[in-house]
Design a protein that fits this description.
Blueprint: E1 4-10, E2 14-20, E3 26-33, E4 45-46, H1 48-66, E5 73-80, E6 85-88, E7 99-100, H2 108-115, H3 124-127, H4 136-146, H5 150-155, E8 160-163, H6 164-172, E9 182-184, H7 185-188, E10 194-195, E11 200-201, H8 203-209, E12 218-220, E13 229-231, E14 235-242, H9 243-250, E15 259-263, E16 267-274, E17 285-290, E18 298-305, H10 309-317, H11 328-332, E19 342-344, E20 362-364, H12 372-398, E21 405-408, H13 415-425, E22 429-432, H14 437-450, H15 456-462, E23 465-469, H16 475-492
Parallel strand pairs: 1-5, 5-14, 9-12, 15-21, 21-22
Antiparallel strand pairs: 1-2, 2-3, 4-7, 6-8, 10-11, 13-14, 15-16, 16-18, 17-18, 19-20, 22-23
Helix pairs in contact: 9-14, 10-12, 12-13
């Protein structure tokens, strides 16, 4: 009897596979980091073939550690770094160039040119997104304009596009031998090319972007009983969610007003708005939260922050502050506060709620008193401050006052950060017992498709609290610190010039 689900979680910095049982508990896991490629300032790339190789290694490693045979899996679900785009030859499986990562800012000029007619919100009413370097559509246009021979290859049927989910599903289900060229509604909603209401590619935007429709995958539900395809002959691949939507599902945020925040390479807060695609007036994104089978999609408001955990990686890799990311907390605890400094990590510009691609990172308030410990603490606090900005915007758009925040992702094990997050928000922060909610959401999507779990109530019962951090900071101090942050953000604005 198939009593496990595999979830492949392909993230910005690593690829992992987790094997879950019916209770949502982890039976086995394997994780591998992949190379971050920086050809020029502002450019970020990945090697798609390396990611596929690591996916296979992680999959078989997780099965081995769980003691589960591949043929005993009920299904496989995929979750992925969104907006990272791959172009490849469907006849050979060879990528046409490195994948362009969601953090990459090379499409800044393209976005500015598109905004000359209608402004940054030119298509927001249809796609829920502003014109920004973040999204896949402008990256596709850049590839077609700058990768030698790509447009000609596309015309000859020798080049197709896909976010990382599409790349993995195509390889898992046969690759050049008939792999399924598909994506789900959540990933498609991050391209700037899908109409949120029709759930199909928008022909006018495709025409303006000069992106051939034949290069794009078919859009399918996030949990698909019809199945995208099979791997190893008989294991169905039938769940697909962008990583932040997967965390929404993994946190069992199925009710209108339910919200979660994922602390990873970036930080992403999503609020379930149900069957209504709520337009944002506060710099948030309107996106698809999930779609299960033939049911109508659930929409969400999202606040996207580009750099949170990546700031810790920068301190580790570029400045050599410590050897392992978790050690940042040891240094941060050596001081009671940041010593009056703020770190604004606008390495890729500022995402929500500003959408300023010309911003760059700054450290402000430096004095001779400041040491490495203060910088480490300020780096953690930057994540909490950015989350506060997104939460304020979310409450303005939705009219819903959050009474607590469900938190997940790698950084939720940093207790110093979680306490400061509760303090600066003024509401409790709750960590679930199973913190790997991104992978769990992908498992849930696949499991619902094949009847491994019967309904959403089964999933709600799996969710349990591990720890809650209550706010301890006085309101006067909270206001003073946050006002300092807002002033620091202004110092990061409009740094680059064309």
């Amino acid at each position: 009897m198939a009593d496990h689900i595999a979830a492949i979680d392909q993230g910005t910095s690593s690829t992992r596979c987790i094997i879950f049982d019916r209770r949502g508990a982890i039976a086995g896991m394997r994780q591998l980091e992949h190379t971050q490629i920086y050809p020029r300032p502002g450019w970020v790339e990945h090697d798609a073939l390396e990611i596929w190789a690591h996916t296979q290694q992680a999959f078989h490693g997780a099965l081995e550690r769980a003691g589960v045979a591949a043929g005993a899996l009920a299904a496989i679900g995929i979750t992925n770094q969104r907006e990272t785009i791959v172009a490849w030859n469907p006849n050979t499986g060879k990528p046409c160039c490195n994948a362009i990562v969601w953090q990459d800012t090379r499409t800044d000029r393209i976005c500015h040119d598109l905004a000359r007619d209608g402004g940054q919100d030119r298509w927001r009413d249809r796609v829920g997104l502003p014109l920004a370097t973040y999204f896949s559509g402008p990256k596709m246009r850049w590839m077609l304009e700058n990768v030698p021979g790509l447009r000609e290859a596309a015309a000859a049927g020798e080049a197709i596009f896909g976010n990382i989910d599409t790349w993995l599903i195509w390889n898992l289900t046969g690759g050049p031998g008939g792999g399924a060229h598909v994506t789900d509604v959540t990933n498609a909603s991050r391209t700037m090319l899908m109409d949120l209401h029709s759930l199909d590619w928008d022909p006018e935007i495709l025409d303006i972007m000069a992106i051939p429709r034949r290069m794009l995958p078919r859009i399918r539900p996030s949990s698909d009983p019809a199945c995208y395809g099979y791997t190893m002959g008989k294991v169905p691949v039938c769940g697909d969610l962008g990583d932040q939507q997967a965390a929404l599902v993994g946190q069992a945020c199925f009710g209108v007003g339910d919200a979660k925040n994922t602390y990873g390479t970036g930080c992403f807060m999503l609020l379930n708005t149900g069957k209504v695609a709520v337009p944002s007036k506060s710099g948030l994104l309107t996106t698809v939260g999930y779609q299960f089978g033939s049911a109508p999609p659930a929409y969400a408001l999202e606040g996207s922050i580009a750099i949170t955990g990546a700031l810790v990686q920068w301190l580790r890799d570029n400045l050599r502050f410590f050897d392992f990311s978790h050690q940042i907390e040891d240094y941060a605890r050596q001081v009671p506060d940041s010593g009056g400094i703020y770190v604004v990590p606008a390495f890729s510009g500022l995402f929500a709620p500003y959408w300023q691609s010309d911003a760059r990172g700054v450290i402000v308030g430096l004095t001779r008193f400041i040491n490495k410990n203060h910088i480490c603490r300020a780096a953690l606090e930057a994540t909490a401050y950015q989350t506060r900005e997104v939460l304020d915007a979310m409450e303005r758009d939705s009219g819903v006052k959050l009474t607590s925040l469900k938190a997940d992702g790698g950084m939720v094990h940093n207790e110093t950060l979680m306490q400061f997050q509760a303090d600066i928000l003024g509401v409790p922060v709750v960590r679930p017992r199973i913190a790997e909610t991104t992978a769990l959401g992908a498992a849930y999507a696949a499991g619902l498709a094949v009847g491994f779990w019967d309904n959403l109530d089964d999933l709600r019962q799996n969710w349990q609290v591990d720890r809650t951090w209550a706010p301890e900071m006085a309101q006067e101090q909270r206001v003073q610190l946050y006002n300092g942050w807002l002033k620091a953000v202004q110092r990061a604005m409009h740094w680059t010039q064309e």
